[in-house]
Specification:
Elements: H1 2-7, H2 14-29, H3 37-52, E1 58-63, E2 79-80, E3 87-96, H4 98-103, E4 109-116, E5 128-134, H5 148-159, E6 167-171, H6 177-186, E7 189-193, H7 197-204, E8 213-219, H8 220-233, E9 236-241, H9 246-254, E10 263-264, H10 265-268, E11 275-280, E12 291-292, E13 296-305, E14 310-319, H11 320-327
Parallel strand pairs: 1-3, 6-7, 6-8
Antiparallel strand pairs: 1-2, 3-4, 4-11, 5-8, 5-9, 9-10, 11-13, 12-13, 13-14
Length: 332
Amino acid sequence: MPEQSNARPDRNLAMELVRVTEYGAMAAARWVGLGEKEKADGAAVDAMRLMLDTVRMDGIVVIGEGEKDEAPMLYNGEHIGDGSPPETDIAVDPLEGTTLAAEGSPRALAVIAMSERGTMFDPGPCVYMLKMATQPAYAHLLDIDRPLAETLQLIAREKGTGIEDVTVMMLKRDRHNDAIAEIRRAGARIRFISHGDVSAALLAVQPDSPVDLLWGIGGTPEGVISAASIKCMGGQMVGRLWPRNDEERQAALDQGYDLDEVLDVNRLVAGDDVFFAATGVTDGDVLQGVHYTARGATTESLVMRSRSGTVRRVAARHDRAKLREISGARVG
């Protein structure tokens, strides 16, 4: 039926979305290291919004820059695209790692994900979730209710090493102090990050990754975006909503959220045809950042589609004259 075909993507929209993340990354990169995280984020938002208007889709932002009154563009609930089919849900983080970009630190990304309309998990009032992610070889070992030390022992056994060769990546936060002590008592290693949940998830789920497990309490929106990438490239993530206080807990309960539910990749992104694109802003473990040259700039991106299971790494060169159109005065 025509209605069904219109509702389902029939082309590789990821190849159109990577143009969006490339433009966002290049715009943000002109602010790298200048200590201006709001300006870097704003530049990425403006550039991505400009490109999204050219994509043939009827998209609605499920994960965006906040509510309408807080974010003038790419806010939750905003309609984007040219309005033609297919109807899609959009999760977007124009600059994942605003502080990383402002400091000139590694692993800042421009990221977008897409799936069929009504298939992306809406976090509602829950800003944070406890999550675990790992590569396909250890995906069956994830259990959010099992003691963390036991899971690390199981990973070591599956890996064929001692637990001293198991590495956990996590955000360096005081809320993780008990888990840090548990991991170190067990004998495993910890690799701390200051920001960048999505970049960390992309690293953790890759086969032969130097990181065996991503664990910790991080952003729920980043969890949904990460789930989209994992659905395309393999691996698994499980999580549970983590209200920050009694007020947020009650708000979630009032809106019908089950705070005991274990959220896996298919719950966070239920679509069968998921697209994901990410472009490096600063150099990192997964992607090289934007590098400016006399003639323009180079970018590196990941482009994925769940239906085909294809993961592309795209290296691109961009002309300086075109960059002026999206980055304005910050392009030299």
